[in-house]
Amino acid sequence: MTAAPSNSVCPRCGASFRCGMVSGDAECWCVRLPHIMPVPSTTPSPAGTPQASCFCPACLQQITDERQHKPSPASD
Q: What is the pLDDT of residues 5-16, one digit of tens each?
């Protein structure tokens, strides 16, 4: 089985990856992660193709882990 072609670039690390939102898939890989931030909307790129400002799987996993383990602010 071959991987689906990349259609997005991560704004954090520059990696190419496949975004299901951009491809119009019924579900994207990112929905399997905890919902810690809103899903960005797709916008046309300068070339006129849809482009989402999503993070690649590795970066989104790291962001999710960091936000889930972030200590809550101490109350006075």
A: 788 888 889 899
Structure tokens at 56: 């690649």
With 0.70 as the threshold, say if the pTM is over it.
no
Q: Give helix then strand counts, H and E, for the chain.
A: 2, 4
73 part of a folded domain: no
Q: Is residue 51 part of a domain?
A: yes
CA distance readout (Å), 56 to 21, 26, 44: 13, 18, 19
Taking a C-beta distance cutoff of 8 angstroms, is the pair 54, 37 a contact? no
* Beta-bridge mates of residue 19: none
Residues 6+ apart with CB under 8 A from 11: 53, 55
Q: Is residue 12 within 8 Å of residue 55, measured between CB atoms?
A: yes
Looking at the 3D structure of the chain, how many domains does it have? Answer: 1
